[in-house]
Give the backbone structure.
Amino acid sequence: MKKHIKILDLLRGLAALGVVLFHFSNSTLPTIKPNYLTNLFFYGQYGVQVFFVISGFVIPYSMYRANYHPTNYFKYLLKRFVRICPPSYVAILLTFILYFSAIIIVNRPIDGMQWPGVNFNSILGNLTYTVPYLNTDWFNPVFWTLAIEFQFYILIGLLLPIITARKDYLIALSFIAILLLGYINYFSFFKYGSFFVLGMILFLRKEALSSNSLLLVLTFLSFVFCFHQNNLAEFLFGLLSFVVIFLEFNPDYRITNHLGKISYSLYITHSAIGLMAEIVLKRIIPIHGSDIGKIIMLGIYTIIVIIFATIFYKLIEKPFIIYSKAVKMKNA
């Protein structure tokens, strides 16, 4: 049985909120950028690296605690598909509604909104998270991270039996290979592999599946590769995530627990809902011309997307969490 680790709720919640504040202050909402907090919230984008470290830890941890076996590989992928994809497809539908509503209402697209068009490549790429390989673009720009996550799901289903075989040389070879492949300068999981490796090291440590000496060496190597393959801020956020999970804090704050619970819903819906809110409220509360007004509207938009994400979680995401749990693996 997998034990709930509360620190992950806090990390997920803060990471998702950081991404929201980054997008709203720096890119997504034209009427409130820039503002006094733009430079501060610029660092919110690195919540993505926090998510990658968390996934590197919690996905193999969950699989191992569920007695995963390679014979369950496709059922495991089905569970991940049911858990992640349907809510993201509903979020795409929200983006469609937003785009075409703007066309109908104001006769033009929303300022700054990228739109690849509705064609076979764009639909297939967005539904399968293969956009970079089909020469198209995302309907929802945050989905690029879902592509990275799914590539990790595909890999870890194959890799988990190897790294849990309690053979240090197999663990070392596997992780070093991922770190070296991080130099592939193309859109793939391996570009961000060092963050996932840090998470997997935490998993192996928690389950005592490798010697402490090897994990110490691999941790050092992972930090070296992470620093060399990423910018300083990305590295520091990966380091911070690793340390916080390593220290096994057990915080229990209602707000961060809630943000952690709805973090996926918040992440995949905030762009569309924030833009919808801006279209309406900038006409009702026209205070975005001043810097203070921009800060006030930033707070209002953030509250709106959190409320919407809470509703989305209850109505859309939570049912699919239940459906994914209903997919049983043979020896689970």
